[in-house]
Design brief:
The complex is a heterodimer. Helix content of chain A is 35%, strand content 23%. By secondary structure, chain A is of the alpha+beta class. The longest helix of chain B is centred in the C-terminal third of the chain and has 25 residues. Classes of the chains: A alpha+beta, B mainly alpha. At the A-B interface, helix 1, helix 2, helix 3, helix 5 and helix 9 of A face helix 1, helix 4, helix 5, helix 6 and helix 8 of B.
Chain lengths: 453, 181
């Protein structure tokens, strides 16, 4: 049983497969008795879950509280042979002096809980999916100027002092976009002079997330993983500090970094033509080019884009960017794409949002690459969709073959048409069938407004 | 108060209901993919079974008989879903019924292990499952309540289900006879 077939069966049960994949699934079910058995097993699992959850809830509600027996064994008190389980008093005033310090401690904890917002327990279960990626975990393998940014708390006053750009009507639209990945991304947008968007909830979540990941369900379910929990928690501490620094940078009114602008400066010195990496061929809606020295330029019709530019799209906008190296990007709404150039050729980096990339067949062994958050994708010829979220990056291949290298450790996998993968710095690759995987479809609906493909 | 003798059709049927419920439920759910729809179809299956149990030949196995009734009820349900293109074809329903005849013991065992594995889940994970499968909340509603994206909740569910599946598979392999997948 391949993971792909398993995912398709689950998508069928979840009702997210659609009619086309269902026809394929039916064919597979006709051929393969093992697949039919697997469908029944999965169906039994889903069908049994409500009853099992209900039984568990009743069982827990009816379970007698563990109390200290006179013998000190701590075993549950035996339930009466018949009749309802008696409700035990929560406190026994006669239990002695130890009650009062305990009550005081409980009150202190309760006061802390009320005054300091804490995560809901369920947030912890899904934190590994949505937790913002700390700025500092970008590895050296990503050879961009911002890779040199230190992971630890960065100097806030910084070499990143850039000019102020008046906030215009566009800024409102920008505020509605997804949160920038990190301080560099925010600065690269050129929104330096806009009032900093304070996101205390996000900041709080980001600061606490790495440590709470250890409490996720997988950690609890895998006993063998428990031995590694302490070292992981230790490693998480610097990550939390790095994230805290990143968010402080992001929210600071005085620090608006512009590494892309710094990158663009040598390009400008070499002349405008030399810095051209492609052109916008189609623009719809609120699309801007953020350019060093020129600020935010509204994009209209065909325009050249240069190394150091950042193309940003509003919530319902879109643009098509034809790169000089045969890479065409359809940029969906609420997306930021930064452009650069290395001796090897243009560098396209998706900082947030969604693009559909089309790479024309390249000569020889050369490969075009597109960066996006936690991954770098490269191919000699392919069409694929890349979604860059706050922490994770998702890629689904329409046609051709695409290699993915994870930014956190350089680990590489290859995907063929129809396949996809979710890349998260802290998780193993999640490969899936891009035609039916529910979470991928949800990501596409959320970020691009359309299902996939 | 008068009690029915043990060999009345009703009592015999009740014994079979208990024995075959997991298989029938899995078969129905694999086609309807919804808890309410599954309950509706199963209710109809047992109603028809009650009516026809008198015709049932005790010397023959019960499971093929009840799966035959279930298959007919599913075909009726399928007709009511005629507009939907996402319903399995009738011949696939037949094949599934054939397969279901052979895997009752495994499904029963998996149901038991599922309960054990659920106990080992942390509360937060169980709560997500509770909202999705017990409260029957849509994923979007779960996401809204948790203030998370739909994708994040879907991924959490995928991971939780995978963990439970792994746990159940491990228990099946460790069981006497190693009945596992």
């Amino acid at each position: 049983m391949t993971k792909d077939l398993h995912a398709r069966l689950q998508a069928h049960l979840d009702g997210t497969a659609g009619a086309g994949p269902l026809a394929d699934l039916e064919e597979a079910l006709r051929r393969d008795p093992a697949l039919r058995r697997e469908l029944l097993v999965l169906a039994a699992f889903d069908a049994e879950l409500p009853a099992a959850l209900r039984e568990l809830a009743h069982e827990r509600a009816a379970a007698p509280a563990r109390t200290a027996t006179p013998g000190g064994t701590g075993e549950p008190a035996p339930a009466p042979a018949a009749g309802p389980v008696p409700v035990r008093p929560r406190f026994r005033l006669s239990s002695g002096w130890i009650l009062w310090p305990a009550a005081a401690a409980a009150a202190a904890v309760a006061a802390f809980k009320i005054l300091a917002p804490t995560p809901k327990p369920v947030e912890q279960a899904i934190a590994r999916v949505e937790a913002p990626r700390p700025a500092g975990v970008r590895p050296a393998a990503v050879a961009s100027p911002e890779a040199a940014t230190p992971p630890a708390p960065a100097p806030v006053a910084a070499p990143f002092r850039v000019r102020a750009i008046p906030a215009g009507p566009v800024e409102g639209a920008e505020a509605a976009k997804p949160a920038p990945m990190n301080a560099q991304a925010a600065a690269a947008d050129g929104v330096a002079a806009a009032p900093p968007l304070r996101r205390p909830a996000l900041a709080a979540r980001a600061m606490r997330t790495p440590l709470e990941l250890e409490e996720g369900p997988q950690a609890a379910m895998a006993p063998q993983a428990a031995t590694g929990a302490a070292p992981r928690a230790a490693r998480a501490q610097p990550r939390a500090m790095a994230m805290r620094a990143s968010l402080e940078l992001e929210d600071s009114a005085t620090v608006q970094a512009a590494p892309m602008a710094m990158q663009a400066a040598p390009m400008a010195a070499r002349g405008p033509e030399e810095g051209v990496v492609g052109r916008l061929t189609a623009v719809s809606g609120d699309v801007h080019i953020v350019r060093a020295g020129a600020g935010r330029i509204p994009a209209a019709g065909a325009m050249e884009v240069r190394a150091g530019d950042v193309v940003t799209t509003g919530a319902r906008a879109s643009a098509t960017l034809a790169g000089d190296d045969g890479v065409t990007l359809r940029i969906h709404g609420s997306t930021r794409v930064s452009l650069g150039r290395t001796p090897a050729g243009p560098v396209l980096e998706i900082r947030a949002g969604v693009v559909d990339a089309s790479v024309a067949k390249r000569p020889g062994d050369s490969r075009a690459s597109v960066r996006g958050g936690a991954l770098t994708a490269d191919t000699s010829e392919a069409e694929f969709r890349l979604v860059v979220r706050e922490r994770s990056a998702w890629l689904g291949v329409r046609s051709g073959r695409v290699g993915i290298a994870r930014a956190s450790d350089g680990k590489r996998i290859e995907l063929d048409g129809g396949a996809g993968a979710a890349v998260d710095p802290d998780q193993p690759y999640e490969k899936f069938d891009a035609r039916s995987f529910p979470a991928w479809q949800a990501v596409c609906r959320e970020t691009a407004g359309t299902p996939y493909p | 108060m008068e009690t029915k003798p043990d060999n009345t059709p009703t009592d015999a049927l009740l014994r079979h209901v208990v024995a075959e419920d997991a298989v029938v439920r899995a078969y129905v759910y694999s086609v309807t993919r919804g808890h309410r729809e599954t309950e509706d179809v199963i209710q109809e299956v047992w109603r028809v079974a009650c009516q026809k149990i008198g015709d049932f030949d005790d010397s023959r196995p019960f499971r093929p008989w009840i799966l035959g009734i279930t298959r007919l009820q599913l075909l009726k349900w399928r007709q009511s879903q005629a507009r939907s293109r996402e319903v399995l074809a009738p011949d696939v329903l037949d094949l599934l019924a054939e397969t279901a005849e052979t895997c009752r013991e495994e499904l029963d065992l998996r149901g038991q292990y599922l309960r054990e594995c659920l106990k080992r889940l942390p509360d937060n994970g169980r709560r997500i499952l509770q909202m999705k499968y017990f409260d029957e909340m849509k994923i979007g509603d779960v996401a809204a309540r948790l203030r998370k994206s739909v994708a994040a909740v879907e991924m959490a569910l995928v991971r939780l289900r995978r963990m439970l599946r792994t746990c159940v598979d491990a228990a099946m392999k460790a069981a006497p006879g190693g009945a596992g997948s």
